[in-house]
Fold:
Amino acid sequence: MSRHQAVRNLDYEDVLDEYDANDADIDDEGDQLTAEDREALSKGTTDVQDALGEDARKVSTEQIEEALWHYYYDVDKTVGYLRKTIIAPPPKTELKKPKETSNRFDAAAAKSAAIAKMSTKTSPKQRPNGTAPAEKINALSLDEPPPAKSKKIDVIHEFTKGQNKRSASFVVVGHVDAGKSTLMGRLLLELKFVEQHLVDRYQRQADKIGKGSFALAWVMDQRDEERERGVTIDIATNQFETDKTRFTILDAPGHRDFVPNMIAGASQADFAVLVIDANTGAFEKGLKGQTREHALLLRSLGVQRVIVAVNKLDMVGWSQDRFNEISEQVTGFMKGNGFQLKNVTFIPISGLSGENLVRKPENPALSWYTGTTLLQALEESEPLTRALQRPFRMSISEIFRSQHSQMTVSGRIESGTVQTGETLVVQPSGESAHVRCIEVDADLQDWAVAGQNVSIGLYGIDPIHIRVGDIISSKTEPIHTNDELVMKVFAFDHLMPMPVDVHRGRLHAAGRIQEIRAVLNKTTGAVEKKKPRLVQPGKVARVVVKLESKVPLEAGQRVVLRMGGETIAAGLI
Ligand code: GTP
Ligand code: MG
Structure:
């Protein structure tokens, strides 16, 4: 895993520690380039030139070496950086460009590399192997724009009067290896948000490590570990747009070990694409595994609209019978779990070959199908209604340094509105922070509203007071913290007084079911039994959960209870 990718998974505080440690490295190790470095630079330069093709003429060897050094010889990132900053600096409509890295931290890294270019002190040859660009990050602060003044905008008025393109986020879920990342890679390729030559390069690289069938998945799976193992580990985001809508993809991991990351993705989504592997045995296995768990979690987290992509139909000869069999079983299952069938659509596809994603199928074997393509189904999915009038709340999914602000947090605005110059409260620390800038779909804007995925640059807060999973909220109506939650839950497993983890977005809190107040009637909510010793699976109950520390959770929020890697209940505070 490259250093910057590793950084993405750390807390902000850890990141700072890391840079501090590396400051020391710079002093200690001097400026010798080891034989290993030289070899990596030389090989990397050839690979980058290879990947750039014709464009290689537009950059000097020195520029390539500089970027390679900065990205710790990561060829993909180097190519991405060179393309973005030197070969084709982004025009204003940046959104149309394919996204080569999934990590906004890289943008900051790229920026600091650019700054470093101006400094003789930090030429590549002076940087010992493995050191982070600490001086460059410091240089970044000089470049920060002064804090913004509040323009006191009536955001709701601006939003409602504007001709805004619709924006919608969807999470892609399903059992491990169902083909979620491949499907998204193919969709982005078909829509030309990813270039063919990039996929060709992934193909060559994937072939080399015996993972040739994962080349399209690599569009989403950017971490080295994900590529080596052939599994998605954490949510990867990417964007594309059609004439009507700007979509944000949240590609979730299917592996059972990473369900908490899937929960984080599902809690940012307007709707979901549930991918099912139609192969003999694979569908049945999934239905006992994460197809089932993910569907339950979607329902529990309030996602109502689900497009069921019946995938890998190429492997069962595009069988209409198999498609019908799967659709029937999944329909029964979804109905049993409280989904309204008008919100569930079934689409036969092959993510690998791209059949029925963007264009109507041309394959005669699929002539029995006359319904919509996947893209049409995505466009027909209405985003959730936006809770504009409620106080501002946003759960922090990522913290990083961006081009515009040293401390940038990203996530989806759950409710309310936000504008530059505004003061916010971060919970559970209770500290204030000011909004320096707001980025929506890669454009800087004065304001943003509920439902949008945004990056917010903050200032005036010490990094130790802000972490992934925290909630930022309006200063006038801040979210409060709590260590005792009374909730109405649906039990997936037996519940009794026992330790549990409470999950909401990226927030995880350890606690204990302290008390079971009552078992309730599923439809009327009336008390069926007071103070039972145990809640049976399938029952609804009112329970009290005591947490080890105070966390920002409030009434009306949906949470998931897990224990020992299993989802045991979900419900409403
Ligand atoms: P996780 O994120 O780890 O849960 O996996 P995933 O659902 O993202 O699956 P991924 O896209 O990594 O694909 C898994 C394997 O299935 C790869 O070898 C793909 O080539 C293969 N695959 C995906 N879609 C199709 C398809 O439509 N047809 C065929 N034949 N194979 C497919
Ligand atoms: Mg995947």
Summary: The pocket of guanosine-5'-triphosphate (ligand 1) is lined by residues 176-182, 213-214, 217, 231-232, 253-255, 311-312, 314-315, 350-352 (CB under 6 Å). The first strand starts at residue 166 and ends at 173.
